[in-house]
Amino acid sequence: MDTIKSKLQTGQSITVLTGAGISAESGVPTFRGSDGLWKNFRPEKLATLEAFQADPCLVWEWYDWRRKLIEPIEPNPAHYVLVDMENQTEQFTLITQNIDGLHHKAGSQNVLEIHGNIWKVQCTKCQCLSHNSEVPIQILPTCHQCGGLLRPKVVWFGETLPAKELAAAQLAATHCDLMFIIGTSGLVQPAASLGIAGKQAGAYVVEINVERTPLSNIADETRIGKASDVLIDLLS
Ligand code: OAD
Asked: Which of 27, 47, 75, 94 is the most exposed place for a label (fewest CB within 10 A)?
């Protein structure tokens, strides 16, 4: 039996870090690569606090477009394999950079959304947080409590990650036997550093991606292939 399969059977603690690649097979665009969002859109015009302050309509229109795109999308087999993995593991944490909510939709429970969630909004005035699934969303959306302008509850470039989620992610990365890094280019910090932290703390690190990334250099194994194919093969 190969090392990953035997570790899956004996491992008490598994941490998974996912990126846009796990949702690609569902039809959610990734950020980098030939069809990536950042090929056609400029992040500094759409995904920074400065951009939102300068032109909240434009930023909200972009998020409304992404919400429309994501709303009908269903999880794919890779998401569901991770639900099974969670059910079979004593201690399981799923850290995701994805804001699409597909891990929750598939049924994963212990999910840390370190870059936020496109279906959550926060008031820029009273800071209250709420769920918002309106599609299309009213532009500009306002807070039911105080009338302030709402923003998407996602992490923009230049912003810090939510402290509680990041601390929990760091703990999970450094206290696991087996760590999977799935469908991320490993180019965005501090998310990518979680893989390095896991390796340094002694986890067996397995990367799953359609191509090699900077994280391939620290991984114990890189399995090249689509997330669903590789995960189904590992858990069968
Ligand atoms: P990227 O778009 O940077 O990388 C997606 C990765 O998925 C690439 O390495 C692809 O090779 C891989 N991939 C594509 N299809 C795959 C498949 N079917 N199976 C496995 N791998 C596949 O996305 P992220 O790494 O998630 O941040 O990007 C990180 C962050 O950058 C995002 O969370 C976002 C973005 O700017 C914020 O918005 C804060």
From this structure: 27
Helix H segments across the chain?
A: 3-10, 21-24, 37-40, 43-46, 49-54, 56-70, 77-87, 102-106, 163-174, 191-200, 227-235
Ligand 1 pocket, 120 CB below 6 A?
no
> Which residue, by CA, sits nearest to atom 16 of ligand 1?
21
Q: Which atom of ligand 1 lies nearest, measured to the CA of 156?
A: 39
How remote is the CA of residue 142 from the centroid of ligand 1, in Å? Answer: 31
Residue 7 has what pLDDT?
86
Contact by Cβ (8 Å): 213, 223: no
SS3 78: helix
Q: Which residues of the chain have pLDDT under 70?
A: 1, 11
Answer whether 32 contacts ligand 1 (Cβ < 6 A).
Answer: yes
Which CATH code of 2.40.160.50, 3.20.20.140, 3.40.50.1220, 3.40.50.1970 fits the domain covering 2-27+75-115+162-234?
A: 3.40.50.1220
Which residues of the chain are in CATH 3.30.1600.10 domains? 29-72+120-154
- Check residue 34 and give its pLDDT: 83
pLDDT digits 0-9 by tens, 175-212: 999 999 999 999 999 999 999 999 999 999 999 999 99
pTM greater than 0.70: yes
Which ligand 1 atom sits closest to the C-alpha of 227?
A: 19
What's 29-72+120-154's CATH class? alpha beta
